[in-house]
């Protein structure tokens, strides 16, 4: 037997005493629920967990790549801005010399 707490509705929880059973129903999404033996359900859920962990690793790597790219972009923008400021100062220094 299993004692389980589950969410009935948002913020509303209930406790259930579940007797031993030979099968379970898994919610697959898109209004689809299938009945599996306990072994099949365990295998399916384990495979889903492994896939989710692999996807998480890829997403974390992609996020790190994007962070690096954002840093590179910020440095590049700062360099272009500084170059522009330097060019304006050169033009301003040359302009009064021409007026004399």
Automatic annotation (TrEMBL):
It holds the Pfam family Prefoldin. GO terms for molecular function: tubulin binding. Gene3D superfamilies: 1.10.287.370. GO terms for cellular component: cytoplasm; prefoldin complex. Keywords: Chaperone, Coiled coil. One of its GO terms (biological process) is response to cold. Residues 42-69 form a coiled coil. Belongs to the prefoldin subunit alpha family. This is Prefoldin subunit 3. It comes from Eucalyptus grandis. The lineage of its organism: Eukaryota, Viridiplantae, Streptophyta, Embryophyta, Tracheophyta.
